[in-house]
Design brief:
The structure holds two protein chains of two kinds. Chain A is mainly alpha-helical. In chain A, 82% of the residues lie in helices and 0% in strands. Chain A has a single domain, classed as LemA-like domain (de novo design (two linked rop proteins)), CATH 1.20.1440. By secondary structure, chain B is an alpha+beta fold. In chain B, the strands form five sheets. In chain B, strands 14, 15, 16, 17, 18 and 19 form a six-stranded antiparallel β-sheet that branches. In chain B, strands 1-2-3-4-5 form a five-stranded mixed β-sheet. In chain B, strand 6 and strand 7 form a beta hairpin. Chain B is elongated and about 80 Å long. The termini of chain B are far apart. Classes of the chains: A mainly alpha, B alpha+beta.
Chain lengths: 222, 425
């Protein structure tokens, strides 16, 4: 009697177990997919913040150049070479900012969708963007020598926008790294690693710490 | 080790959440603000949520890490914006040790408070107060402009109606706080020559607005009365305040100038429906009209919605210009009402009754009453106090000849004329 009942129950238990396991695997797959989507959307956010900064660079360069031209006119014949020398230096920095921005924009745009999958691509973008950060910070520091420009409302507005874009980039990078960390940890764990081993899901690339990225950058000296 | 670090972090967070009161708006970990100032801020920020749905927190702490990063952490830990129905959150993080201040803006508010505006408010409004060591005032004065912006945005429906998460994407601005650094050297002090007292009250107000437009914060402009200059010398006048005055009055109508019967005082006032436009008070200085900003400071208050009201219904020399306005118990003016007599009186401590206001173009003005006249008798009855005067005025029948004896500058005078028409009962 007893044995009979347990024999009857066995297939049912097996079926329930199988259902539970399949459901668990599907659930974990869905979890992985939503983690991957989180990585992609945080990358998209970062990209749009990079773009935000690129869009601001031309007006920053234009504002500073316009000021220098104006100053050049008022200086003409009054003060000798020193001030002109300084202005020439700022002009060089402006060019450096401009070209860093163009390079970074191109590097980001051409391989943007690749980046989270490919560490080398991500590093290249990070380096190009870090170069731009360093150059624009360098420009901001030099502008402090021009108190009239530095304290003007127009420049303060631009400065706030550029700094705002940089801060957004930092926040988005932090969130991107968090999303990648969660995703990478999930595909290493059971049962995520089972799905990963099927070849669909790959490890995503991280951003290195700021210092490493910026060490590779050489600012233009004045 | 990572586990240990995690539990320490978790413990710190738990402690933090346990320490902060659920309805608190301010976390001052440095004791920079007095208890009174803290209570004032708490109250102000509670109203900001009530009136404009903005959840605005203030954190004051010394720290070593990057202020921008800490600001994002605080924003998340305190769930700033969570008290607002649609994710409108602001966080002010002041770090006295690093001498930096940051305002962080939630995604739902980014359109209304872009980084450049936040930076402007910090540089041009908050920091000038901080330089004078007035931290709480700087925070509140900045909040006032945040409210002004919120009102504009509400009027233009600029607030994003879609409900965004109460989270920050790193929007906002960080500036040097310059706490207690004092005002910048006076080489920027502007000349006073342009702002001379003008031939008419309106022209003097225009000269003042022109000076504000040039951000002329010189407290010694010749258009100011002596008392005004003394008051302004103690004041923190910020570029943002000056910009705001100019912007606010640009939206006002021409207004009307009312001059006291003795020609010594004038008011430029705006319509009852323009309550964002507070009146100007002027004195005749002989060589032209000067602006008296002390009255604005003492007798005019501003509500949370930036509309003005009389702070006290006190005996002041400019009452004449508001005789046709009815003030309620809180000093808020209400719909205009032409008074029968247009005469306002008050009783002094010596039980003498004085004229404290004459409504322009009223019966009292026609009789020739002036501010400061002492009422001696009315139709032969001695005036005992101002309520008695009111009674005597009420008794006068339409068209009946009235004889009033007053004392002006020590001399007795008689005023005569027919009583004005009685309003319909």
């Amino acid at each position: 009697m007893e044995r009979n009942r347990s024999r009857d129950l066995k297939p049912i238990i097996m079926l329930v177990l199988a259902i539970v396991i399949v459901a668990g695997l599907l659930w974990s797959y869905n979890q992985l997919i939503s983690k991957e989507e989180a990585v992609d959307s945080s990358w998209a956010q970062l990209e749009s913040n990079y773009q935000r900064r690129h869009d601001l660079i031309p007006s920053l360069v234009a504002t500073v150049s316009r000021y220098l031209e104006h100053e050049q006119e008022t200086l003409q014949g009054v003060v000798e070479g020193r001030a002109q020398q300084a202005n020439a230096n700022v002009s060089r920095i402006l060019e450096a900012v401009n070209s860093a921005s163009t390079t970074a924009e191109e590097a980001t745009a051409t391989s943007a969708s690749e980046a989270p999958k490919n560490e080398e691509t991500l590093r290249r973008i990070a380096r190009a963007q870090a170069q731009l950060s360093v150059q624009s910070r360098h420009l901001m520091a030099v502008v402090e020598n021009y108190p009239r420009l530095h304290s003007s409302d127009q420049f303060l507005t631009l400065q706030a926008q550029i700094e705002g874009a940089e801060n957004r980039i930092n926040v988005a990078r932090m969130r991107y790294n968090d999303a990648v960390e969660a995703y990478n940890a999930a595909i290493r764990r059971i049962p995520g690693n089972l799905w990963a081993s099927l070849g669909q899901l790959q490890r995503k690339a991280y951003f290195e710490a700021d210092e490493e990225a910026e060490d590779a950058v050489t600012p233009v000296f004045d | 080790m990572p586990l240990l670090r995690f539990s320490i972090n978790a413990l710190a967070l738990l402690l933090l959440v346990a320490c902060s009161r659920p309805d608190s708006w301010l976390e001052d970990h440095t004791g920079l603000l007095s208890e009174g100032q803290a209570a004032y801020l708490e109250n102000y920020h509670a109203h900001l949520l009530e009136d404009h749905g903005i959840d605005y927190r203030v954190v004051i702490e010394d720290g070593h890490a990057d202020i921008n990063r800490r600001s994002v952490e605080w924003f998340e830990n305190l769930a700033v914006g969570g008290r607002s129905e649609n994710g409108k959150g602001l966080l002010l993080l002041l770090d006295p040790e690093q001498d930096q201040v940051r305002i962080e803006v939630s995604q739902a508010l980014e359109g209304v408070y872009p980084d450049a505006l936040i930076s402007y408010l910090e540089h041009r409004q908050m920091v000038p107060f901080f330089r004078d060591g007035r931290v709480a005032d700087g925070i509140v004065a900045t909040t006032e402009l945040i409210v002004t912006r919120a009102q504009e945005a509400e009027a233009n429906q600029a607030f994003d109606p879609s409900t965004l998460p109460a989270a920050t994407g790193g929007a906002g601005a960080t500036v040097d706080a310059d706490l207690g650094k004092g005002r910048p050297s006076s080489d920027t002090t502007q000349p006073s020559g342009m702002a001379a007292p003008q031939g008419g009250p309106r022209q003097t107000v225009d000269a003042y607005l022109h000076a504000m437009d040039n951000r002329n914060d010189n407290p010694d402009l010749p258009i100011y009365t002596g008392a005004t200059r003394r008051m302004l010398a103690e004041w923190t006048m910020t570029p943002a305040q000056m910009d705001n005055v100019v912007r606010a009055y640009r939206a006002c109508s021409e207004g009307e100038v009312l001059t006291s019967t003795d020609g010594q005082f004038a008011v430029l006032r705006y319509g009852m429906d323009e309550r964002q436009c507070s009146p100007w008070f002027l004195q005749n200085a002989g060589n032209g009209w000067k602006l008296d900003l002390t009255v604005l400071q003492q007798a005019i208050g501003f509500g949370r919605d930036n509309t003005w009201h009389f702070r006290r219904q006190e005996f002041h020399r400019y009452r004449f210009a508001f005789m046709d306005w009815r003030l309620d118990g809180n000093g808020y003016p209400h719909s205009e009402r032409m008074l029968r007599w247009g005469l306002s009186t008050a009783t002094s401590d010596e039980q003498q009754t004085f004229v404290i206001g004459v409504q322009p173009a009223s019966a009292a003005a026609e009789f020739g009453f002036q501010w400061g006249d002492r009422l001696v008798s009315w139709n032969g009855t001695d005036v005992e106090h101002h309520r008695h005067a009111l009674q005597l005025m009420g008794q006068a029948r339409t068209g009946e000849e009235q004889t009033i004896i007053i004392e002006r500058a020590g001399q007795s005078r008689t005023l005569q004329g027919p009583a004005p028409e009685k309003p319909d009962q």
